[in-house]
Each structure stands twice: as C-alpha cells, then as structure tokens.
Write a structure and sequence with these properties.
The complex is a heterotrimer of chains A (127), B (343) and C (584). Chain A is mainly α. Chain A has three helices and no strands. In chain A, 62% of the residues lie in helices and 0% in strands. Chain B has one domain. Chain B has twelve helices and two strands. In chain B, strands 1-2 form a two-stranded antiparallel sheet. In chain B, α5 runs antiparallel to α8. Chain B is globular and about 65 Å long. In chain B, 57% of the residues are buried. The chains are: A mainly alpha (127), B mainly alpha (343), C alpha+beta (584). Chains in contact: A-B, A-C, B-C.
Chain lengths: 127, 343, 584
C-alpha cells in the first residue's frame, strides 16, 4: 500500500511543476523589452507617493487573532461531531443520551460566550 | 509490485485530474463570458471557432506571447511564489472529490477509485487546504509593492479567514449526521438515505455563501474590486503569471461546486435511488458542478458588490451565529432521532 | 417625494437687489449699464455677505473673469434659492497686480472657480485656502485666457511646452505651417522617470506632514493613493488623491485638467455660430442641453424670439436627452458600486433608441450641432413622431419601471447607497452644487422652474427632490426626473404646433450687439451656464462655461471624508461627472 498522503504530494508536485513550467515557458516565448517606465509601479499612471508596503492598521491583526481563536474551536468540534450519533444514542443503547447534548452544549456555550464578548467589546466593528 | 502499479495509477490519475481541471478552467471562462453576455443582451464570444469555442485556446496562446514585464520594485522570490502557490493549492483541494463509484479492474488491489485520495479526515483536509489559498493572495499583494495590491491582499486575508469560520461550522452538521468525514462515505450515505440538503438546508445555504466569499467571487470580490482597486492583488502581474491566478480562482470555483455537490447534493449519485452505470456517475457530478458554476456566473451578472465593512459584518455577525444555530439545531435533531422522540 | 416650488417666497428682482445694495453701500457699490453691481474691491466681502444674508442671494451660480484692456473684471453671479434671475456682481482688479479678496468664506462654492480664474487669468484671491492651478499643471508658465496669451499653432508668438518626442522624430501637421517647424526637443537627459524625480513632491494635498507618518497611538501608517487618471472608475481621466487609514478615507483632493483643451479660448477664437458644435463636446452625454444653453445666452444678447415649433422641438429633444443621460448616469452608478455591467447594458439599449431619434433629426448621435440662434437647424423628420410616441408612451415608461423595480429594492444597492456621501442642504447650497446633487439634498431647485427658459412654464411637471442628501437620494432624483421628463415630452409631442423653425431675420453673418449675458439651462448634471461678453465683433470677447460637473466636485472631498475607499467611487458616480465638461 502506498502511504495515504503520497497521492496528494504527487498532485502538489505536479501542480508546482506546472506553475514553474508555465512561468518559465512564458519567459522563453514572450518578448522582453524592459524600460524604466514599464517597470515602474502602477498607480493609475502616476508616480506613487511613498512606498507600497506600510504598516497596516491593527484591525487586520485583530481579525487574524479572532480567526485563530475561533477556528481552533471549530476544528475541535469535528472529532466530536463524527461520534455524535453514537454518543447521542440512549444510555441503554450504549450512548450517553442527554449527556452528549450537555457536553456539546458546554463547549458551544463557551464558544458563544467568547463570541458575545468580542462582539460587545467592539472587535467586530469596522469604523 | 502492487505499490509500483498504484504509484503509476496515482500519477496517471493526478495528471488526468490536472488536465481536466485546466480544461475545466478554460471552458469555465468561455462559459462565464457566454452566459453573462446572454444575460446582458449581448452575444458573447463568437469569433474564434464555432460559438467562440476556441477562444480559451486563443487566450492561452496570447498570454504566452505577452511581454514579460517584471516590475522593478517587486520582491522577486515572493512575487513568483504567489501565483504558483495559489494554483497549486487550488488543484490540491480537488484531490478528495470522489468523481464516480469505484470499479473492478484486473490490477492493483482490484479496485479503481475515481478519486485521488480518500481520507477519513477529508473534510478537514478540504478546509485546511482551502485556507492556504489566502497565502497566495496575501503574498502577491505584499510582494507587488503596490498600494492597490496591498489593500487587496489585506482585504482578502481578513475576508477569507472570516468566512472560513462560518464555512467550517456549516459543514459540522454534515459530519454529525453521517458520522464520518470521508467524502466517499458521505456520498454512500446519501445514496442510501437521500440528499443531505434536505436535512441541512441552513448548512447548505451558509456553505454556498461562504464558498462564494472563499473564491473571491462577486458579490464578495473585494480583493480585486475593479471599481476601486482596479485589479487588486494581481495588478502587477502580466501574461501567464496573471493567468495562474485566474486559473486558481476558477479551479477553486470548480472545487467548491464539487464539494457542494458531494456534501449536500448526493455527489455522483442521482436522487431517489436511481442507479446509473458507473461511467455515467462522472457525468452526473459534472452536471451538478456545471449547475453550480452557472449560479456563480448568474450572481456575478446580477448583484452589485458589498462594501468591505459590510462584508465583514455579514460574515461575523450573520453567518457565524447562523452556523452555530445550525449546529445546535442539528445536535437537537439527532438527539431526538436517536432517542425516538420523533415518533 | 416630490415638491413644487410654488410655496416659496418670491425673490427680489435683480434690479431691486441692485437698488437696495446701492442704497446700503453707497460708497462701494455702483450699477453698470448691464445692471451688474460694480463693487469696490475692499468692500467685496461685506457686500457679498450682505447679499447672501440680507438679500437672499445664497447661491453662487458662477464666478469668472473678463480680461479688459485696462483691468480684470472678476464677475460673480449669485441668485436666490426662491427663483429668479441671478444678479451679476463685478469687482475690478489691477492689470499689474491683480488681487481680489477671496469669496470662499461667503460662498464655499467659489473655491474651485477662484482657482480656475487664478489658473487662467493670474488673478490672485487673497485668503483662498488652497490657491493653486487647477486645470493647468503646476509650473505652467502664462495665463491662457488673458488676451495677451497667444494660442499655440493659431495665434501664437510662443509655444507653451515642448513636445514629448525626442530627436524631433515626430511632428504634427500643423508644425509645417508654423515658424517653429519641428521644434520637438526633450530637455537634456530626459527620461520619463527622471522628470518625475525632478519634482519629488507631486502631492496635491494640503496636509500636515506629521499627519501622514502615522496615527500616533497604534503605529499604523497612512497611505496616499492616487485613484486616476488611468483608473477604470473615475469616469475618464480624473484623479483623486486619497489619504487612507486602512480602508477609511481621511482626506480627498480631486485633481483635474487632464483633458483640458481650453474650450473657452477656442470659443473666443471661433465665430459666434461656429462655436455651436464645440459646445457638444462639453458634456457629450447631454449634447442638446449644451447647445441650448449657448443658443439661449446668445439669443438673450441678440434679442431674438424663437418660434413656437422650434421651442417645442428643443424641449422634446432636450428632455429625451435628459432621459438617456440619466439612464447612463444611474446605471453607471450601479457599475460603480460593483454591478457587472448588467444594468448598464439594459439601460444603454434604451439610450441607443433615443440616440436613433437624435440621429434622424440632427444627423448625428452625439455631436448634434442642431441649435441655431433663433431656432433649430432642421425640422423633425416624418419618422420621428411615430417612434417618439411609442417610446415615450410605451417603451420608456416600461424600461424605467423595470429598472426601478430591479434596482431600487435591492438590499445591496440599499446598503451601499443609503447614508453614504451625505451632503446637507445648507452645504449643498453653499458649495454651489446643482442638478440631482442639489435636489438630492432636499433643495427643490431646478432652473426650469426657478427661471423658466424656453416654454417650460407651459407644461405640467414637478421638481423631484429627496431630503436625505445621500447617494440613494441622488439616484432616486434621477429616476424621478426621467419620469417627469417623460411627462414633459408627452405634453410637448401632443401640442407640437406647425410653423417655422427659425426666428429672427436671415443674415449671412451673425451680429451680436455689444453687451453681456448669463444664460443657464438645467442640464442632466446640473445648472449649465454660459457667460458671454460681446464687443460687437464676429467672435465673442469672452465666453465662459459654468460647468455643473466641475462645480459639483467642490463638495466631493467633504462628502467622502470618513467613508471607505469603495464609497469614494460610489460618491463620485453619484455626482455623475463627464470629464469633457469638468476639464473643458
């Protein structure tokens, strides 16, 4: 048996290869006549004022942080979700019954609590 | 021996899938132009070949022969990395889609699966790989040393990760009902029990909205908002480098459509237990993908763009709570079903 | 919501204003032969403030300058929002050292117009907040509208700038005819980037340098971004220089003149009638209105009566023109908020049919050259009436309703337009905004009602006005105006009389008696005014265009501040500029 992740690696390698070949080929085929004006940064036809890379407002970082927090919680839900049907079965059938709901409730509750907190704190406002 | 055959088989499958995706990309552009043209009282491409069918080929050739302009101020390594990365990630996400039922063949382990990789964590794989797509865009925006590109890159990073959340949550319901993250098992389940869209209507809607946002398509095409950012993150890219971004966008569209079809619309299976021979399975899936692509194009032709802050608000304050609600409803529903409360 | 203007108090007649102003400022104010107030330079601000506050002249229509042999006359036209003709105010400036106090503190709408006068005549305005060239570029030598400035190729003893082509490799046909021959020379060591480097600071902002470095508390930096001139959504070669904090606009400065061709100088070179086709090139979406305004002004000076049939034809074509122009404006606004051309394509289909009508009548779809002093050039062709009737009774109402039902209710259109780019009524008046921008701010002011020209007073129609002052209100005003225009065309078609289409006596050469006049029409984009001065010669002594697009842009910066980048495009789209008219 192949390692289960080999196919994906092969696909990725082919993809990268395709990209590299395409770019290289365009360098071989395409004409090239560089001039300072052509190579200038485009800003609606004018010379840009100031550099194009700047420190950006902190809001973007805030979004990234919130994403990491919530996304990890979402990922934790998956293993639980896969087993949920067995867990939610009645106790006599080998499940946990209401216990399954309750434990998930606690988890989602914590998630919601955090969500309500950032909302109330104004972290989701864009002005 | 077996593994050598499997290796060959896998490489062939990968090559075929990439070829198919590239063809799909090419004709998706043709399809989009034609459909939008019809919706706008125009004819659309009709010069290159019958009904303009050769237009994608002509476009490809044109892009190869474009002058290679390499802006002086770019960060060269990252600048070239970004499009390659975008496209590779888009292609890799497609690996988990089951294209048809497996058939018996006289080599290898005896089964030919029309699927590159069948993981038991396929859903997580899909979410993980698609979230990589944001890197291509952010890196392009940063490397270009261009203000439009920078703003486009920033917007898209914030947008994509925000919608990623709701997308992840909207698929939890599917996992709960089927009890598996493997796409082939999800399709098999649907073949037996009916389409999941019936049980997960809210999840389906949330998934569709987030899929449009994840692929940066109208009305969520913030990063490349033509009206203010001109072309956004790929503004400093020409020729094939630009085409790679385009490829990534369209292949991502095909992938999210395929995932929607697989998770919610029965995949390669027809509803009501109608059986088709294995060689028509693929056609069924393609038809569903084409329908999804049509909706993408239709939306683009119809709806104006949201503003950036409205988009973020919508993602965080509407879709995310709705996805959590969906999760809770699904949990309650399963509990009721398993405990016989539904009668 | 529509309002009529009948409830407003009657305004003072210009003669009354002149008499009362003279009574109040006997030292500083005299009245000249044309009924204009001639105000002493030193007393200008006092007089202007009194005119605004006590005589009701709240709205500055027009500000321009006339280069007389012995002085510069800076000419203001101001009117009351209650209607009536504008009052002309003149201030003389020295030939040697022309300085006049700036009226920006009285009428904020004077801002760009004073800059234009400075640019074109070199008259400086003391106290102006940002007195720099506006249509020509900084560093341009000379003042092109002065009489001693000669037009290159046509009159000139000097050429204002060198050609861009190195080694004289390229020449214009005209160069063979001139004394400079092939004069194309680059400055030594020219490269496109090199010249830019020679002027490192091409920012047009009035900015605190510290302001730009960073917002002190967070440490993020602001960006200066140029939108335009090579930009898909500035409606032409228009530039906006933005200061951004993330996505939010901190400051915005419009920059124009990329398409400047000194229309007014050309107009002063042209014969009176020969200038008619040039007016088409101003606002090329609303050509008939441009011609009408010019014809109206010259007819005022010549004292010609226009026959009834011609008036009807003018009104029919002008209103059809307004409809097609608003189709264009509304759907391009939709494009600006991100719709992918679909509404535009449907609107353009209707527009094309209206242009068909123009073509069959005037011979041209855009550059009509149709009006004449005293009438119109050709009578309506036979096929016009049937097609026009189907259009205004059947097809256009349906198209407008369809557009209304598809666009107006849309959630995204709503969220993108409502509450964005708000211009309160007082500010709109102060900034001399006109047309849908003014009426979208809840000021039901329409030249067609306020100072009716042609035969607008014979028809039954309403001024459309919405009080919100945002993009949505402007959009709704345009939609409403299309319906009102249909009403007017329907009535005009019904009453269309027979008879001649030209008034006045036949003459080979048009003689415009000495004098001056300010004529104005309500063009789709606002009040289009022409200020002409004749010295009895074959061509105008002074020919000035009051461009509504240009003046509406004065308020753009104010409207945009605090909104998002995406909103700037939408707000600009809601002003609906046409660069042919902004830059002239």
């Amino acid at each position: 048996m192949l390692d289960p992740y080999t196919p994906v690696l092969i696909l990725g390698a082919l993809g990268v290869g395709l990209g590299v070949v395409v770019i290289a080929l365009s360098f071989v085929i395409g004409p090239r006549a560089p001039s300072p004006v052509k190579e200038a940064t485009y800003e609606s036809g004018l010379t840009p004022i100031g550099p194009g890379r700047r420190r950006v407002p902190v809001r973007y970082y805030l979004v990234a942080t919130l994403f990491i927090l919530f996304d990890i919680e979402v990922i934790y839900l998956y293993p639980y979700a896969v087993r949920f049907r067995q867990l939610a079965a009645p106790v006599e059938a080998g499940g946990q019954g209401v216990g399954a709901l309750a434990s998930m409730g606690v988890f989602v509750g914590v998630l919601l609590l955090g969500f309500v907190y950032v909302w109330r704190k104004g972290a989701l406002e864009w002005d | 021996m077996t593994s050598a055959i499997e290796l060959v088989e896998t490489v062939v499958k990968c090559a075929v899938v990439i070829g198919a995706l590239l063809t799909g990309f090419a004709y998706a552009t043709w399809f989009e132009r034609k459909v939008i043209a019809r919706m706008q009282l125009r004819v659309g491409p009709n010069q290159a070949g019958p009904a303009g069918l050769l237009l994608p080929a002509a476009d490809g050739i044109k892009l190869f022969f474009k002058e290679n302009i390499l802006p002086a101020a770019v960060e060269k390594g990252v600048y070239f990395l970004a499009p390659v990365m975008s496209m590779t990630v888009a292609i890799m996400a497609f690996a988990i889609i089951p294209l048809a039922d497996a058939v018996r063949v006289p080599w290898g382990d005896g089964w030919l699966r029309f699927q590159i990789a069948d993981y038991n964590v396929a859903l997580l794989y899909f979410l993980g790989v698609t979230s990589f797509a944001v890197y291509g865009i952010v890196l392009a925006g940063w490397a270009s040393n261009n203000k439009y590109a920078l703003i486009g890159g920033l917007r898209s990073s914030a947008q994509m990760i925000s919608y990623e959340l709701a997308m992840g949550l909207s698929l939890v319901g599917v996992a709960m009902i089927v009890g598996s993250l493997s796409l082939s098992e999800i399709v098999a389940w649907q073949k037996a029990h009916g389409w999941l869209v019936v049980l997960q209507p809210l999840g389906f809607v949330i998934y569709c909205v987030t899929a449009v946002a994840e692929t940066n398509r109208a009305p969520f095409d913030m990063p490349e908002a033509e009206q203010e950012l001109i072309a956004g993150y790929h503004i400093e890219y020409t020729g094939m480098r630009f085409a790679l971004f385009f490829m990534a966008e369209y292949i991502a569209m095909i992938t999210v459509c395929a995932v929607a079809a697989t998770l919610f619309l029965g995949g390669y299976a027809l509803p009501f237990g109608i059986e088709v021979p294995w060689y028509l399975d693929l056609a069924v899936l393609l038809a569903k993908i084409a329908a999804g692509m049509f909706v993408f194009v239709w939306i683009r032709a119809t709806i104006p763009r949201l503003r950036y802050d409205q988009l973020m608000d919508f993602g965080w304050k509407v879709l995310l709570p709705l996805a959590i609600l969906n999760l809770v409803l699904t949990a309650l529903g399963i509990y009721a079903y398993e405990n016989g409360l539904l009668g | 919501m529509t309002m009529t203007m009948d409830v407003r108090p009657a305004a003072l007649a210009p003669a009354d204003v002149a008499a009362r102003a003279q009574a109040r400022f006997p030292e500083a104010v005299t009245v000249d032969a044309h009924g204009a107030l001639v105000v002493d330079r030193a007393a200008l601000i006092d007089v202007a403030t009194a005119l605004r506050d006590d005589f009701g002249l709240a709205y500055l229509n027009n500000l321009t300058c006339v280069d007389r042999p012995d002085r510069f006359d800076v000419v203001y036209h101001a009117c009351s929002m209650a209607g009536g003709a504008p009052v002309a105010i003149k201030v003389a400036a020295d030939k040697a050292n022309p300085v006049v106090p700036s009226a920006v503190s009285v009428w904020a709408g004077a801002n760009f117009q004073e800059r234009e006068v400075y640019d074109m005549f070199g008259v400086r305005f003391a106290g102006h907040p940002n007195l720099r060239r506006i249509l020509m570029w900084d560093g341009f030598a000379g003042y092109p509208l002065r009489k001693d400035w000669k037009e290159a190729y046509f009159e000139g003893a000097q050429k204002p700038f060198n050609s861009r082509w190195p080694d004289g490799a390229f020449f214009f046909g005209e160069e063979k005819l001139t004394e400079w021959k092939s004069n194309a020379k680059y400055p030594r060591g020219y490269t496109a980037t090199g010249v830019e480097k020679a002027r490192p600071d091409n920012t047009v902002m009035v900015l605190d340098a510290e302001d730009l470095k960073h917002a002190p508390d967070i440490g993020s930096e602001r960006l200066i971004v140029n939108m335009g001139p090579q930009h898909p959504s500035t409606h032409g070669v228009f530039q906006m220089q933005l200061v951004l904090d993330g996505e939010t606009v901190v400051d915005l400065q419009p920059v124009m003149g990329y398409m400047h061709r000194n229309h007014e100088k050309i107009g002063e070179r042209n014969l009176w009638l020969a200038n008619m086709p040039y007016t088409d090139r101003l606002d090329y979406i609303a050509q008939i209105g441009n011609e009408w305004g010019y014809a109206l002004t010259v007819e005022k000076m010549m004292g010609i009566e226009v026959p009834d049939r011609a008036e009807h034809i003018r009104i029919i074509l002008a209103e059809l023109n307004r409809i097609q122009s608003h189709f264009w404006g509304v759907t391009f606004l939709l494009n600006d908020i991100g719709a992918f051309f679909t509404p535009m394509m449907y609107a353009i289909e209707e527009r094309e049919i209206i242009l068909d009508l123009l073509e069959m009548t005037t011979g041209s779809r855009l550059m009509c050259n149709y009006m004449r002093f005293g009438g119109v050039a050709y009578d309506l062709p036979e096929a016009f009436l049937p097609l026009a009737n189907t259009l205004v009774y059947d097809r256009l109402p349906r198209a407008i309703d369809e557009m209304d039902s598809f666009l107006t209710g849309s959630e995204i259109v709503d969220t993108r337009m409502r509450g964005v780019g708000v211009l309160p009524a007082e500010q709109a008046i102060g900034y001399s905004a006109s047309g849908p921008v003014l009426r979208g701010s809840g000021v039901p002011y329409d030249v067609r009602k306020a100072e009716p020209y042609g035969i607008y007073d014979r028809f039954d129609w309403d001024v459309v006005s919405y009080p919100e002052g945002d993009i949505y209100a402007r959009y709704m005003v345009r939609l409403g105006e299309m319906r009102e225009s249909l009403k007017i065309v329907q009535q005009a078609l019904k009453q269309l009389p027979g008879g001649p289409i030209m008034g006045g006596k036949k003459a080979w050469q048009i003689r415009v008696p000495e004098g001056e006049a300010y004529g104005r029409v309500e063009n789709p984009r606002g009040e289009l005014g022409y200020y002409c001065v004749s010295d009895g010669k074959a061509n105008p002594y002074r020919y000035h265009v009051r461009s509504p697009c240009f003046i509406n842009l004065t308020a753009l910066g104010e409207m945009t501040k605090g909104h998002k980048v995406a909103d700037t495009v939408a707000i600009l789209g809601s002003i609906d500029i046409v660069l042919g008219e902004v830059d002239r």
